[in-house]
Description:
Elements: H1 20-23, E1 60-62, H2 64-69, H3 83-100, H4 108-119, H5 128-138, H6 160-167, E2 174-180, H7 190-201, E3 206-213, E4 218-219, E5 222-223, E6 231-244, E7 252-257, E8 266-269, H8 270-276, E9 277-285, H9 290-296
Antiparallel strand pairs: 1-6, 2-9, 3-6, 3-9, 4-5, 6-7, 7-8
Helix pairs in contact: 4-5
Amino acid sequence: xxxxxxxxxxxxxxxxxxxxxxxxxxxxxxxxxxxxxxxxxxxxxxxxxxxxxxxxxxxxxxxxxxxxxxxxxxxxxxxxxxxxxxxxxxxxxxxxxxxxxxxxxxxxxxxxxxxxxxxxxxxxxxxxxxxxxxxxxxxxxxxxxxxxxxxxxxxxxxxxxxxxxxxxxxxxxxxxxxxxxxxxxxxxxxxxxxxxxxxxxxxxxxxxxxxxxxxxxxxxxxxxxxxxxxxxxxxxxxxxxxxxxxxxxxxxxxxxxxxxxxxxxxxxxxxxxxxxxxxxxxxxxxxxxxxxxxxxxxxxxxxxxxxxxxxxxxxxxxxxxxxxxxxxxxxxxxxxxxxxxxxxxxxxxxxxx
Length: 353
């Protein structure tokens, strides 16, 4: 998700949002579309967890205590369209904290710059795919080495020290997994919804890009549904939990961390996500990093670039020279594996008479 919610102020003449119960029966008719848009970054769809099978999930998951334990407090984007950068940075911070038991706050400004470098762009804000490409190419610096600016400056670049410090996070085995690739014309399938809940239940937050209400309406902390002509593309938030609740449309709500609005956490009904979630992605880490794998791999005793010394041809593995008088009882021409003290037992031909 690239664009981002900048304001939730009510505008005269804009379509109004309605309470969820009013629109629950009209939900899927509201999000019909005919054309598609490709995101452009190749990735496997949730390949790390395999096919979804019947699995009993907890009725509620809340990852916020872990964020608090690691001192990862909510952040605010201000007036800039950087919600996706904040969302991906939040997922990176969580993965690094889970990897090492602690983490520093990461620079959204650096990640935004890296995404633009990777995509050849100069705009403020980026897609999830470009943000990951930027991280994969440059890493990510600590917040103190490239602090977030209230206004976008396309000429701003990280210092040499920040670039070097950012690259130290490239070898920590972080991995990105797609649950749903970006498509502004489709929401979530039942399978997508189940995969998001399973990912959250296993302790990983999910980055989500949404078509978002032009005018937010809240009942308590629950974001209310809007018809399709009252949403725009869009806004990104970090899903940090869920709660099954039969009283909510779709049977429950997702808990999300929001860098817009007042920076407060909120809830959205499952039906909102099913109608308006454009993409979903999460970040974890490999149990073995690249450096660990190379350190434990034994060095070869000799170099054999062409493989002539270590690659055996198929079939016969030993050539018997013309000078060798092969006896059919004691020579195994094809080097078949035989038990100890066992020779090929072939019949001895007998002449006439």
